[in-house]
Amino acid sequence: MGMNTTHTYFRPTTAQQRRILFEAWEATGNVAEACRKARVSRDTFYYWKPRFDEGGYGALEQTKSHAPKSPNKTVEDIEKQVIDLHHAHPGWGKRRIADELSKNNNWLAVISPNTVRRILKDAGLWSKSEAENKKRVLINQQSEAQTKPAKR
Questions:
Q1: pTM over 0.70
Q2: Which of 9, 107, 110, 118 could form a disulfide with 101 if both were Cys (CB 3.0 to 4.6 A apart)?
């Protein structure tokens, strides 16, 4: 028989539990007793202890933020360049705009074509139907060029 691999979910501690935990610990000096009184594990005590040592009871009120972070957000200057290129050349697609930005940067990739699309979409300048129409026109032009007889 193998070990049970399911994990038990424990709700995050409340600020009130953490306050009871450290008040009991300060009163008794006994970690195990304080944990029993607050109904938390010893791991929880040692997780919060550095914060308590650093900031007292006020530090126990706040938990770490789980808010989404955007470390890879595109720089505003590049977003402006994408929008300016789109206004200057409305016929260019996402790949062409990305290539033009790369060309101005010694052919080192600055931004991906899909990021160009996201920037234009966020600015309200990109619609799926426009992209499909451009693609359809390009395919039609290519097929017409291939079917035309060569001049002699």
A1: no
A2: 110
